[in-house]
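User: Last request for today: this protein with glutamic acid, please.
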Amino acid sequence: MSNKPIVTRFAPSPTGFMHIGGVRTALFAWLWARKNKGTFILRIEDTDKEREVAGSIEHIQKSLSWLGIDWDYGPDKPGSFGSCIQSQRLDTYREYAHKLIEKGLAYPDPYTQEEIDAFRKQAEAEKRPFLYRDHRPKEVAEAGYKATWDGIKPLRLKVPEIKRCKWHDIVRGDLEAGEEALDDFILIKADGYPTYNFAHIIDDLNMGVTHILRGDEFISSTPRFLSLYEALGITPPQFATLPPILRDDRTKKLGKRDGAKDILEYRAEGFLPDAMVNFLALIGWNPGGTEEIMDGRELMAQFSLEKIQKSGGAFNEEKLLWMNKNYLAKLSDGEFLKLAQDFLPKNLTDKNAGNENKIVKLLPLIREKIQVFSEIPELFAPAGELSFINALPAYEKKSLIWKKEKDAANVAVHINSVIKTLETMGDTDGAFSAEKIKAAIWPYAESITADAGGRGSVLWPMRYALSGKEKSPDPFIMASVLGKDETLRRLRQAV
Ligand code: GLU
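Assistant: Here's the final one, the structure of the complex with glutamic acid:
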């Protein structure tokens, strides 16, 4: 490998939101640059004005920033090569267009749309592929040809040599394509903007890009790119083609309907950026070994282009949730609470209502139950396991009876005994803690013999009386969160 400093780029078109695929490309290019202490460029490819969606550039920047992907040059940071926004580099493309004209390797397209359509039809009728180069005007084909260009007609490349193409891709290995892959493609369109095919090559050259990481949809165009590199007399950067991201069932590429959603939606749902980065890095790349939880630093240490896989990587939302839970577990209680704020019920986050202790007591339950913050509201919704904090739903009397209880009359006896015990306790947070409540109730619960139903005969009605539900948390935690008064109120109501 040469000692040239590594330069990679992510070159999105501002045509809408950033989805998983785009972000993964950016991540890999960024990891490769950062790992090698190289340069990472964010370049905006906005030469197709019809497809442009307002706000996309900001959206792209916001998405990358959320994930910690930073750029050395970008739409907000031009370099010595000028702007990173293609529509602001039109002069550069024209300059190179003229270089090609000088070399006799570009010509204005003389045909009208109707004429081109007729050529195409004729090729179809003769069952041969339609190629522009079959229709080069006579003079273009002549030796020593040099065009005059009014700057208005579309400009086409005159492919320097029609031949079979071979090239190397770091991921895919040696690739080749036949002559039919070469054609006189458009460099500058009638609207004055360059095509992607032309602009990205000039930019990569001027920006010193050493490695192009991009999706496999560009493989079929690579012969054309190579013919342009040849026409310009430059050595192409190295290519690394990323594998497609597939649906979880691997039957086809992940589409919008399968969850290829806007990356910022994941942020809105409360996924952690570190989890997202870890998850994306493992789609189509694997350092070997079985460890899957790798933070940013670890990823950077391990990342290599050689370990990018050829075949598609599946997008598995379950795995993302699992990964997110792993990263949630790394947060301190304080960090967790801060990030969870927006998802918690308002009545619990309102500090004036003396809720701080409540939420701290509930925290272990919340942390245990969720994989992502967006699951929190469900926990507190009327059907949720933590809804006891907001309200006690109406329930049927018989629900209070433990399934092993033989004598229904015992239920009131047990609850009354619990009430009596709790009445003797203090009502401050310290005195009415889950541990202390448990210590006070446990001996009595344990004293119920197995043939009389066992400790469940006490704990079940206590839990039901506090929550009004079959599925609810530990009764001691519930009691401590509710506080002494509310706990006694609910128990008395049960009696
Ligand atoms: N603008 C192209 C795209 O959005 C970039 C392809 C490349 O990385 O060269 O797909």
